[in-house]
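Intended use. Records like the one below are meant for learning the mapping from a protein sequence to its folded structure. Do not use them to infer anything beyond what is encoded.
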Amino acid sequence: MAHFITFYALSEAKGMIIKMNKYLFEVISAYIKKYRSRSLAICLGIILCTALIVGVGTLADSAKHANVTKTKYESGIYHVRYNIDIDESKLKMIKNEPNVEKIGISSYYDSTVPDGRIILNIIKANKDYVQLTNSKVIKGRFPVKDDEIAIEEWVLKNMGVNPEPGTKINFNLYGKKTNETYILTGILQDRPRLKSSGQMEAILNLNENDSYKDAQVYVEFDENTDINKDIQNIAEDLKIDNKYVRKNNMLLESLGSSKKIDPTFLLISLIAGVVSLIVILGIFNISILQRLSEYGIMRAVGAGSLQILMLLFYELLTLLLISTPIGIVGGLTGAKFLSSIAGNLFTEGKVDIKNIVLSPRVFLMSIIINLISIIIVTLVTYRSIKRLTLIDSIRKNLNTDIKYKKVLIKTDFLYRILPFSKYISFRNIFRNKKSFYMIILSMCLGSTIFIISNFYAELTAAQINKEAETSKINTDYKIEIIPGTNLSVGIPFEDIQEIKNLEGIEEVKTIQPIYGRMKLKKENIAEPLYFEQINDSPYFKEVLNGLLVKEPNSDEYILKNDIYGYDDKLLKEMKKYVKKGQIDIEKMKKEKIAIIAIPHPMNTKHLSPDVVNLKVGDKITESFRKDGDTGEEFFRMEDANAQFKEEEFTVGAIVEKLIDSSDYYAGNNSVQVVISNDILQKISGFKNYRLIDINVKPGYNSEKLYNQILKIAKRTQGATVLNLSNEKQKIKAFATNQLIFINTIVIVLFAISFLNIINNVSYSLISRVNEFDMIRAVGITNKEFRKMITFEGMTYGIFSSTLSVIFGLTGQVILFKYLGPILITPKFTIDWKIYLFIVIINILLGFSATFIVSKRVKRMSIVESISTIN
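Structure written out for the chain above:
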């Protein structure tokens, strides 16, 4: 009877082989339906992988698109500015150039007399100039007559002028030495670039039919063309020297970056692909194990290698075709959900993703990675099937392939110290190296990614907070005194106290800047090329007459630099930026101890990490004008008859960056010196404050407070008030949002990895089900059997936890070594709570996976399962 059944089975199989090519997809469909749980698991793995790749890729492209929009908002939408004499014929030539979209023209008219209140530049410009510099008329209309003017809202408020069209404004003009009155016809939208630097501008109408000397011509091109080539073509046609061509490099770089594949997206795609590959391989191996006998019969009756290979490949391809659309939809949904918090992962600054960009290359990438995965799985699985003999395949006997292999670890000694069931578990774990490695790798992969990603998120969040704290947008309101005024001019102590007492004010931090000259010897100059490049740049060459200047008839040099008096709050906050030395606030208030920040740019010969050789404990000598004058003669060191005061300081600490500083004079291009406010007032005699940072308690009306602060500040001539509360809140929220985004990616990877853990453990146990039932047949109780199986799972958890800790620490060290040089005073930390969480999760995963399988094995008939695998 048994022979008849075997003959009948072989006959049926032979008939199936003959019809296989004709009915290949019916066979595949039958397999998918028969093993639907495994098929669904594979589909889920592909869906998660596809969703992750599409989601991250879509966010990357959308973030870059948003970054282009943000860059246009900050720096303008023009691509180039030509500084030339312009007339009607030249303008016509530019308009006739191919790919030109808009042309904006501005020409300097005059400026107001520096009266200690404000300095306002008045220009003539056409309407396109306003659009290209990212502004627009928000109230009223653009000027069309000679006596009409348009001004930004923030400028009008600082002028004390009511921002309403029809208001008459009188200007005392510096160059023309006369008073002129204009009618305010248009209120312009604030321009962030000018507003952040305190540059005030008013716009008159420009007649494009007239000629203008030293005009600035702004051009916007079609962004689907070669913009750099278009810029050069106009320069050549109009014979414009390159030094009069000013590209909007921020925008051009942003546009160029938007066309490149993001490295973060590539890395996450590769990780997702590897994890998906392992998952599909593990799940498919179990599915193949369950139908190994059928493949053996097919081979026995003449099925060719190509037929078996194609059967495997087309089955996986069918599942891929089913899963990919679902994964793409899931990825796009996730991208939309996370778009509000993920922009900064793919750009250098904070961006808000308002529109999701559908990118064909992202969809293609997900398909290619999954296709490569199923090809590899097909080949590996086919190789495993091919390696077994026909008899072993038909009998589903995998043990002949491993029984003569050397075990991974000898466990004979454990027989004397462990119960028999646990000894058997250890023997099973270590006798198959491939199975052991796959299970441990599966469990370690997700854990290690989680540990390293969490550390990366912590570093990134700290970096974002420090960048925000050391940027111009580090406070709710900022009061600045306009450049060019005497250094003794500032907000008096009494007004500072009045601001502190306003309802809703949380804290007020004060800074007193003065402009100094530091004496250096030749051996103190670590990077001469840096100073050569700086001295040759337009501002430092023409305005300062050099940043680093050699004293005549001496071997000493003078380095122009900024000196700041910080209050106690700011000095305390500076401690987190210390690279060397320490900040002792009480000591700094009594002694002449300085904190210094040294530039360390990347475009020098790298003779030294810093541009000057100064260390903790060194003495530095600073001189500054007693009268606080900041005129042109002081800047250019042409004030030999002026009285100077010289002071010596001891370097107490070297920091990475300053929390707040001024862009005026030398700025952060030179060595910046910080001392205590108490010491600065004592040595200079200046009692007023020129930089004030104001933070507000949550929930208070920013506009009301802004008007109150503006009223107090306006008592001091030259004071301007900036409302930065909205920008500050956006940056503050980003660190938290970025952690959410990174952890979302990790959770998806962990979910894919979890699928693989369950299936690899299942594969290891199900492939030995006949052995387990032999043990059950000789008398082991169900309780002892469950303990034996779950002990095996917990052992996997302990091994993987140990390796996860080792790999996690190693990954943290490598990541810190790679990112450390580009971060602001980073700290290497080990979050023991994360490691403890990973250990607990791995042990629970191992226990859960084996417990689920043990229940399935228990339900099987002992007699049937000894001879076959169900």
